[in-house]
């Protein structure tokens, strides 16, 4: 295959505490560039946080590019369900983004502790279980959901929710935590100018049938995986950071006040050349 001219390298996030102005990702862009002999852009969050931003989410500018390329009629929303979930609302030049709350992390941790599984494959356990509505309602009283965006969080921000389902059957716990992610996504509607007419779901959560069914009921809109729009959901994140790397190398903004809360549009990312910085 063709060798890359530029690599976008985010690294694995170990902790992200925007209120403290602190974020930590594993990986050394300079060493990667030297080892591969290819320019690398890394450290996408620091410049945004130095400008008063949350340092995340980072991908909305790519979602905007996809919406334009695909000719999607707005308002449309991309809902990324990874360890946490975040939304990118796009309507013409308007882009609003923020973390909505828990994503897959709680369900994954529950399945690991209760069944020794890495995740709830296909949402099978949740589909067999029954969500406890009172527990979900209690979890939704967390102050995070009443805070206006921009806002971002760490995957373990809602870990206390695991205590709320302790003692439940495996399937009921999975169903309740899945419903929590769904309700958190639905609660994000209050912060959007108008309800999106279409939601495109990416991240591992798109493979969870219980989550997708719940989202369709809660959002009362067209909810599809990104594959329905002709996109490759397994490659979307990699494509996004390649796109962000090019923008950073060209000095173009990667984050904006309405996506992270930075004071001005910021070109995030540090460029490392093979011959050294």
Verbal overview:
- The protein has 277 residues and is α/β, with parallel strands linked by helices.
- The protein folds into 2 domains: 6-54 and 237-272, ATPase, nucleotide binding domain (Nucleotidyltransferase, domain 5, 2-Layer Sandwich), CATH 3.30.420; 60-229, Nucleotidyltransferase, domain 5 (2-Layer Sandwich).
- The chain contains 11 helices and 10 strands.
- It has helices at residues 29-36, 46-50, 60-70, 105-115, 124-128, 133-139, 161-165, 170-187, 209-219, 236-249, 257-260, and strands at residues 6-8, 12-17, 22-26, 39-42, 76-81, 84-91, 94-102, 198-202, 222-225, 270-272.
- The protein has a 5-stranded mixed sheet, sandwiched between helices. A 3-stranded mixed sheet has the order 1-4-10.
- The longest helix is centred in the middle third of the chain and has 18 residues, at 170-187.
- The mean pLDDT is 96.
Mean pLDDT figure: 96
The CATH topology of the largest domain, please? Nucleotidyltransferase, domain 5
Question: Architecture of the largest domain, CATH level 2?
Answer: 2-Layer Sandwich
| Overall tally of domains | 2
Low-confidence stretches: none
Number of DSSP E strands: 10
Task: State the CATH class of the largest domain.
Answer: Alpha Beta
The geometry reads as globular
In sequence order, what are the helices and strands, one letter per element? Answer: EEEHEHHEEEHHHHHEHEHHE
CATH superfamily name of the largest domain?
Answer: ATPase, nucleotide binding domain
The quaternary organization reads as single chain
User: Helical proportion?
Assistant: 25-40%
Radius of gyration: 19 Å
With strands numbered from the N-terminus, the spatial order across the biggest sheet is 7-6-5-8-9
Structural class: alpha/beta
Q: Please give the count of helices.
A: 11
- Beta-strand content: 15-25%
End-to-end Cα distance: 28 Å
> What does the main sheet amount to?
5 strands, mixed
């Amino acid at each position: 295959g063709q060798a890359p001219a530029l690599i976008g390298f985010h690294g694995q996030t170990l902790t992200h505490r925007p209120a403290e102005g602190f974020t930590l990702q594993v990986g050394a862009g300079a060493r990667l560039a030297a080892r591969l002999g290819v320019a690398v852009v890394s450290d996408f969050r620091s410049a945004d946080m130095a400008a008063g931003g949350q340092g995340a989410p980072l991908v909305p500018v790519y979602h905007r590019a996809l919406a334009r390329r695909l000719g999607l009629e707005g308002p449309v929303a991309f809902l990324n369900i990874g360890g946490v979930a975040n939304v990118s609302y796009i309507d013409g030049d308007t882009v609003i983004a923020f973390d909505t709350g828990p994503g897959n992390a709680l369900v994954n941790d529950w399945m690991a502790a209760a069944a020794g599984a890495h995740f709830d494959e296909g949402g099978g356990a949740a589909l067999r279980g029954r969500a406890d509505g009172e527990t979900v309602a209690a979890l939704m009283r967390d102050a995070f959901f009443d805070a206006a965006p921009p806002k971002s969080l760490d995957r373990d921000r809602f870990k206390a929710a695991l205590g709320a389902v302790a003692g439940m059957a495996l399937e009921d716990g999975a169903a309740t935590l899945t419903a929590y992610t769904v309700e958190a996504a639905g609660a994000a509607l209050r912060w959007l100018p108008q309800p999106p007419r279409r939601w495109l779901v990416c991240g591992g959560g798109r493979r969870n049938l219980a989550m997708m069914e719940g989202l369709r009921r809660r959002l009362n809109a067209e909810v599809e995986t990104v594959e329905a729009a002709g996109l490759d959901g397994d490659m979307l994140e990699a494509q996004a950071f390649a796109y962000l790397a090019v923008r950073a190398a060209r000095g173009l903004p990667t984050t904006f006040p309405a996506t992270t809360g930075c004071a001005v549009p910021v070109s995030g990312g540090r460029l490392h050349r093979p011959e050294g910085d």
